[in-house]
Specification:
Elements: H1 3-34, H2 36-47, E1 48-53, E2 60-61, E3 67-79, H3 87-98, H4 102-109, E4 116-117, H5 127-136, E5 141-150, H6 158-161, H7 173-177, H8 179-182, E6 187-192, E7 205-207, E8 214-217, H9 221-238, E9 242-248, E10 255-261, H10 274-278, H11 281-284, H12 294-303, E11 313-316, E12 319-322, E13 325-328, E14 336-339, H13 340-345, H14 349-359, H15 361-370, H16 397-404, H17 413-424, E15 428-430, E16 435-439, E17 446-449, E18 454-457, H18 461-477, E19 491-501, E20 504-518, E21 525-532, H19 541-559, E22 580-582, H20 591-597, E23 602-606, E24 612-616, E25 622-624, E26 628-633
Parallel strand pairs: 2-8, 23-26
Antiparallel strand pairs: 1-6, 2-3, 3-4, 3-5, 6-7, 8-16, 9-10, 9-21, 11-14, 12-13, 15-18, 16-17, 19-20, 20-21, 22-25, 24-26
Length: 634
């Protein structure tokens, strides 16, 4: 017997045993201390299952707490493939209920996954369909709560609010910009399963979803609805390419209303073109402003003291020559001799050319830049454009002349509202904003709050006061007279801007606009209306845009609680205008005397007798000339 060989084999066996033992100890140590998290995760994935429950998005509210975007509860279908025993039966029945193919559903329920969401057929099911699926009583088939975004006012404020995708994520507008606040935290139902995925009858845990935070806007819903109504009427009446309206508080920069047409219903955004749902015209659209831009030239000329609007005069022959080019006034024969106050009342282009030449390009461009043109306003919405200005070094006398009356440059509606607000609010340039703040949906405490932001002082209070007065006379005596509202001080300016196509001005195709404010002596609202190429109407801003503004002003005075003024500049009527008169108090007077006092109206009588005991309309009411006044006799 060879003891040496036996001893050698025993030695080798012992060494191998020791190595294996050490390897096992090392492996145990590695698993216990180094690879623990990974293995524990794999084990949990094998045993633990989660059924997701989506959180409700935070509400979007107007400045008064009225709901603009909320949520409705829907049901979605999810399956746990390993728990479904008869997959063919399940696929057949579910495909019938969802009106889809057997192959589609069978593909979902045979996937090698722990939980499978039936998408998109099984998302946001009606209660009727959900009840049918629930009645099947199939193990592994679950119906879970899912929130769906709901916009109670349909297409109202749609471009501002934006819309939400099928997975409850914000895709545009406020919904997208404030996604991190609105989104919320999803919850789940957790349960244990065996290695084959079968549900164990052990305790379950419920993680409640946490709703998102609420976003409060500066929008006034009542004013917004008035704006939306006027937009619908304009579209029906004029069939324009597009129309937009923008309203802002000039003393803070708060946006009170914003809308345009074409618009879309945020609940059904997939039914509209990409251009329609993604173009928020009040901040996206750029075009030559036309005569509304004259307000900036006017303010600059007054501030630089190059003109006295009451004493200095200009004779308008109907045109003016600049660098060999003839620039025409809208009134072919001209306005004749006029003060510079009348120049703005008449919206006289040659008169504004002279103001531009008096200022010079350096000064005019300084004010244009100071008023915020040529750059984004900074409004808290995505998709804003910045417009196009002449480069100062490239401006010749002709470019200076056309810029002075709003031609040859490109601006956005929001830039104009921001700039005109500064011109009439005392000279303060504020950054416009539309989100008032973000609040906790449970405690209603502000998490984030916007404040008004003063960028700079652009003109003096004295200049601003003169601009306000001049623009009030434009409405009372000039081209803006169709925006005049009896008893209220309204200022404003009309605009009729030519459109450019392939470098040439289009014929018979204009953007008609009006920008106005009230009260003129203490502005609370700046309003801008623009209509792109209306049909079957004389294309002037004063003819089309100003009456729309007047209708919104009528709504705004009650919504914003604006009182009538005593020292309103009387309106100068033309033969085209409807005249209004104050109805006198004729109660307790003799019939003959009452009729003399009511000479501007049609008088009708109810009853018999010689004394008036009651009247309709009531005394001190503004009534249309030759309108009916009913007298009740004793």
């Amino acid at each position: 017997m060879n003891y040496e060989n036996i001893y050698r084999r025993q030695k080798v066996f012992l060494i191998i045993t020791i190595i294996l033992f050490i390897s096992i100890i090392i492996k145990i140590f590695y698993i216990e201390y180094i690879d623990y998290k990974k293995i524990n995760k794999l084990a949990n994935d094998l045993w633990n299952r989660e059924l997701p429950i989506t959180a409700d998005r935070g509400l979007i509210l107007d400045r008064n707490g009225k709901v603009l975007a909320s949520n409705i509860t829907t049901t979605s279908l999810v399956v746990v493939p390993k728990q479904i025993k008869d997959k063919k039966y399940a696929a057949e029945e579910i495909s019938k209920i969802l009106n889809t193919t057997y192959k589609n559903i069978y593909g979902h329920i045979t996937k090698n996954t722990s939980i499978e969401r039936i998408h998109p057929e099984g998302r946001r099911l009606s209660y009727e369909i959900a009840d049918k699926i629930n009645a099947l009583n199939i193990d592994g088939v679950y119906l879970l709560k899912e929130g769906k975004r709901y916009y109670p006012y349909g297409n109202v404020l749609s471009h501002v609010l934006g819309y939400v995708g099928i997975d409850n994520q914000g895709l545009s507008g406020i919904e997208s910009m404030y996604e991190k606040y609105l989104k919320g935290t999803d919850g789940s139902i957790k349960y244990l399963s065996d290695g084959k995925g079968q549900r164990l009858n052990l305790s379950e845990s419920y993680n409640e979803p946490e709703s998102g935070m609420n976003v409060l806007l500066t929008i006034d819903l009542d004013l917004q609805l008035a704006i939306e109504n006027e937009l619908d009427i304009a579209m029906s009446k004029y069939n324009p390419e597009n129309v937009l309206i923008l309203a802002m508080n000039p003393t803070s920069g708060e946006i009170l209303g914003m809308a345009s047409r074409p618009s879309f219903d945020s609940n059904y955004y997939k039914n509209y073109s990409t251009e329609t749902i993604n173009r928020n015209l009040p901040i996206w659209k750029t075009y030559e402003p036309g005569s509304t831009f004259k307000i900036i030239t006017y303010a600059a000329a007054i501030e630089e003291k190059v003109v006295n609007i009451f004493e200095d005069t200009y004779y308008d022959s109907g045109s003016i020559k600049v660098s060999g080019s003839t620039l025409h006034c809208w009134k072919h024969e001209g306005h004749g001799l006029q003060t510079y106050l009348e120049v703005i009342q008449n919206s006289c282009n040659p008169g504004f050319v002279t103001l531009g030449l008096k200022l010079g390009k350096e000064k005019l461009m300084k004010y244009i830049h100071n008023f915020g043109f040529g750059k984004k306003t900074g409004i808290d919405l995505n998709g804003e454009a910045k417009g196009i200005l002449f480069k100062e070094e490239q401006m010749k006398e002709l470019e200076l002349a056309t810029t002075a009356f709003g031609q040859g440059i490109s601006v956005t509606p929001i830039q104009q509202v921001k700039a005109v607000s500064a011109a009439i609010n005392g000279g303060n340039l504020y950054t416009p904003y539309i989100v008032k703040g973000v609040e906790d949906s449970s405690t209603h405490e502000f998490i984030y709050e916007n404040k008004k932001h003063l960028e700079k002082k652009v003109i003096s209070e004295e200049t601003s006061k003169l601009v306000r007065y001049a623009l009030e006379t434009v409405v009372a005596k000039g081209t803006g007279h169709n925006a005049y509202l009896e008893g209220y001080k309204i200022g404003g300016k009309t605009g009729t801007a030519q459109k450019v196509d392939n470098g040439a001005y289009m014929q018979g195709n204009y953007i008609l606009s009006f920008i106005g404010f009230l009260p003129a002596d203490d502005p609370k609202l700046v309003l801008y209306v623009a209509i792109d190429h209306p049909h079957n109407v004389t294309q002037y801003g004063g003819t089309v845009a100003a009456p729309i503004a007047k209708n919104i002003f009528k709504s705004a005075v009650s919504i914003l609680n604006i009182k009538k003024s005593k020292d309103v500049i009387p309106k100068e009527y033309t033969w085209l205008d409807e005249k209004y008169y104050l109805v006198p108090d004729v109660t307790n007077q003799d019939v003959k005397e009452a009729k003399k006092l009511l000479k501007n109206f049609k008088v009708k009588y109810i009853g018999k007798g010689n004394t008036v005991i009651k009247q309709t309309p009531k005394a001190n009411t503004m009534t249309k000339e030759l309108g009916d006044v009913v007298l009740y006799l004793n």
